[in-house]
């Protein structure tokens, strides 16, 4: 693949952990909707849906487009590399939902702890940025941003882990039966999920939008 970026609406196949099957995500290139030049920073995000198949050939674009939202938008880091290495597969291009055409806000947090890795359960303050540009952070409270996604750009392994956790959690499975939750990567993805309002419960008009108080 020689393209240096991806079109909005590109559908990517992702292999889930623990033989859960395959799921599919929709790419949004924020450069398509921004008044700023985001091309030199992270500008690809993905939305996922409650849709799994056990065999690659069972993918149905019609069923995918009907599926309920699972989570998003997730910042992605090495998705182009993963496609070149055939870790991810491009399935085609589809239309975007209206909220997917919106530049989402992303949240951050801080904690009064002195260690390299800390998580949402230790947060003492919250903030966010808008328009895809992390140059202006705005202070917020948790209720304003609890439905927003974290601003960390995830590599392909982190994406696979986060989506696998989302499916397990949605189906009522105990995450600890599948992940030890001892290393920072697993704890990071787990806390991202637990401290975010389930995406399917967020009204479309509030997806990616800071809640005003």
Quickly give the structural class: alpha+beta
State the separation between the terminal residues, measured CA to CA. 46 Å
Summed up, the helix count is 5
Helix content: 10-25%
Shape: globular
Taking pLDDT < 50 over at least 5 consecutive residues as the criterion, the unreliable ranges are none
Count of folded domains: 1
Total count of strands: 9
Tell me the strand order in the biggest sheet.
4-3-2-1-5
Strand content: 15-25%
Biggest sheet: strands, sense, closure? 5 strands, antiparallel
Order of H and E elements? EEEHEHEEEEHEHH
> Taking Cα atoms only, what radius of gyration do you get, to the nearest Å?
17 Å
Whole-number mean pLDDT:
92
What are the defining features of this structure?
213 residues, alpha+beta, 5-stranded antiparallel sheet, 5 helices, 9 strands, globular
């Amino acid at each position: 693949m020689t393209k240096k970026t991806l079109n909005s609406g590109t559908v990517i196949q992702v292999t889930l952990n623990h033989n859960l099957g395959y799921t599919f995500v929709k790419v949004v290139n924020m450069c398509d909707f921004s008044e700023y030049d985001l091309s030199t920073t992270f500008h690809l995000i993905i939305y996922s849906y409650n849709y799994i198949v056990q065999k690659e050939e069972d993918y149905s674009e019609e069923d995918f487009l009907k599926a309920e939202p699972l989570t998003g938008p997730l910042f992605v880091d090495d998705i182009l590399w993963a496609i070149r290495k055939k870790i991810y597969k491009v399935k085609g291009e589809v239309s975007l939902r209206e909220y997917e055409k919106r530049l989402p806000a992303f949240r951050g947090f801080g904690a009064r702890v002195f260690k390299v890795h800390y998580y949402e359960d230790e947060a003492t303050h919250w903030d966010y940025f808008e328009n895809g540009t992390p140059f202006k952070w705005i202070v917020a409270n948790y209720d304003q941003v609890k439905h927003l996604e974290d601003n960390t750009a995830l590599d392909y392994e982190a994406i696979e882990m986060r989506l696998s956790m989302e499916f397990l959690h949605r189906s009522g499975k105990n995450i600890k039966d599948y992940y030890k939750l001892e290393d920072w990567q697993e704890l990071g993805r787990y806390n991202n999920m637990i401290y975010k309002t389930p995406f399917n419960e967020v009204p479309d008009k509030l997806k990616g939008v800071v809640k005003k108080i």
